[in-house]
Design goal:
This protein is an alpha+beta fold. The chain has 3 domains: 130 residues, no CATH class; 181 residues; 126 residues, no CATH class. It is built from 9 helices and 25 strands. The longest helix is centred in the first third of the chain and has 55 residues. The two termini are 47 Å apart.
Length: 458
């Protein structure tokens, strides 16, 4: 049900509740007085609500009456005048006065027919929209060491030059931290990314083939804006319970030096879809945040909130500790050939079996693989987190998570393969009784080196 129809039904019900008794007992004078009071009260609530909204949004727009507000006042007047006349006709029929039955019937048809017409029309439009749009959630991420401010995203059709679904209100969210990174609660201090999303899913027209994204890179003093093509054939099309067409949710990862990765969600994993390079930008060095947004933002000026923008800017600056350089961040996206072998210490009474292993690289990819498959060396990014699912002999499942300091792991691995680059293997020995006593090594042809800079929870 639309907001307009909901408000109309509420106003109609309240009006009938007050006007029917006043028409029956007070006649024409009584119904006119009550209708006038309801009209004045509704107009006051409208003006008060607009004022409250402007105060919350810190808007400096004029508060004087405009054509839209005057039209709303006229709509209230017409609505309550019609309700008053309908109630007066009903009361005359109840009093047995001739000549009002036909008028009452016409009013009754309008009272029930118009809302029903709106309801049917909304449902028809909804079904049409469900078949013309994809439902999709968009998450935008960036490394904690590389802060950005998101300006706007919109979806486009490069052939027809049409633009659809413009979005600019993205909010930082912690709920994606476990979903995407898989970090246990006590390991969130090792979080490497910030995540932003919207409160509701997007509806994207099925004819889209690209998106336009703009953002401000704080450390680089650059404002980026470009169009990013998407091969929609690589997206999986489905349908949800409401018969709404769906495609894979997107994770847009913004990196230093004009690099962007687009990942798509497949079941519980985010897998790499495409990389973009050499993004168009403007230098904004020496400009204030207000000046940057005024001169470069793709959002219409009337929707910009200076106070909120400055708050987000200061929060990002306070929360950014630059432990990594842009070059180091980009280097983490490299892939190496290695295998992973996990063995369980079976000293306790329970027999434990490895069921599934999920490897997460915060900078590039996520993937779940079988134990046997991971033992074989193959090219993949170094893990940021290994999440191991274990089944014991009592059919109980539990999980062990190993979180790595990406910089320390990268340095240790690259140093190790300088002299040992054949059949490199991550050897993980899990102590189920006390996971803190677990061991992790890098192994190659009889050589091994213990790995530092990791945390384990289970």
């Amino acid at each position: 049900m639309s907001d307009y129809l909901t408000v109309l039904l509420i106003m109609t019900c309240v009006g009938l509740l007050l006007l029917i008794p006043s028409a029956y007992f007070g006649g024409k004078i009584g119904v006119i007085i009550v209708a006038s009071i309801l009209t004045i009260l509704s107009c006051y609530i409208l003006v008060w609500g607009i004022g409250i909204g402007k105060s919350f949004s810190n808007s400096h727009a004029s508060s004087s009456l405009n054509s839209d507000i005057i039209f709303q006042f006229l709509s209230f007047t017409i609505l309550y005048a019609f309700l008053a006349y309908s109630c007066f006709c009903f009361s005359q029929v109840l009093h047995g006065i001739n000549g009002y039955k036909t008028k009452s019937l016409v009013c009754l048809v309008i009272l029930f027919g118009y809302p029903m017409f709106l309801f049917i029309r909304n449902n028809v439009n909804l079904q049409s929209r469900l078949k013309k749009n994809y439902s999709n959630e968009i998450i935008i991420a960036h490394p904690k060491d590389f802060p950005i401010l998101i300006d706007r995203i919109k979806f486009c059709n490069s052939k027809t030059k049409e633009a659809f679904h413009v979005s600019y209100n993205f909010y930082e969210t912690d709920r994606k931290l476990y979903q995407i990174e898989g970090l246990p609660d006590k390991s969130q201090f090792m979080q490497s990314q910030r995540y932003y999303t919207q409160k509701t899913k997007h509806l994207i027209p099925i004819s889209f083939d690209s998106f336009e994204l703009s953002w401000y890179s704080i450390l680089e003093n650059k404002f980026y804006k470009d169009i990013f093509p998407i091969d929609t054939k690589k997206l999986k099309i489905g349908e949800n319970y409401d018969k709404q067409l769906t495609i894979n949710d997107f994770l847009i990862h913004i990196l230093p030096n004009g690099h962007v990765d687009l990942l798509k969600r497949e079941y519980t994993n985010y897998t790499h879809l495409i990389s973009y390079f050499d993004i168009k930008f403007r230098s904004v060095e020496g400009q204030s945040i207000d000046s940057i947004w005024k001169n470069n933002s793709q959002v219409e000026q009337q929707y910009l909130n200076s106070q909120n923008l400055n708050f987000r800017f200061e929060k990002l600056k306070r929360g950014t500790v630059t432990k990594l350089t842009p070059e180091q961040i980009l280097s983490f996206r490299s892939v190496f050939s290695f295998g992973i072998n996990i063995e369980i210490d079976q000293k306790d009474k329970k027999s434990n079996t490895l069921k599934n292993i999920k490897i997460i690289d915060f900078y590039l990819n996520q993937y779940s693989r079988s134990v046997d498959f991971l033992r074989i060396a193959s090219e993949k990014p170094l893990p940021s987190l290994i999440r191991i699912e274990i089944l014991d002999n009592e059919e109980e499942r539990h999980w062990v998570s190993i979180v790595f300091d990406k910089k320390m792991l990268f340095d240790q691995y690259t140093n190790f393969i300088k002299t040992n680059n054949k059949d490199v293997l991550f050897q993980v020995n899990l102590n189920i009784g006390n996971v803190s006593k677990s061991k992790i090594w890098l192994k190659s042809k009889g050589q091994k080196k213990s790995i530092d800079g990791w945390d384990i929870k289970g």
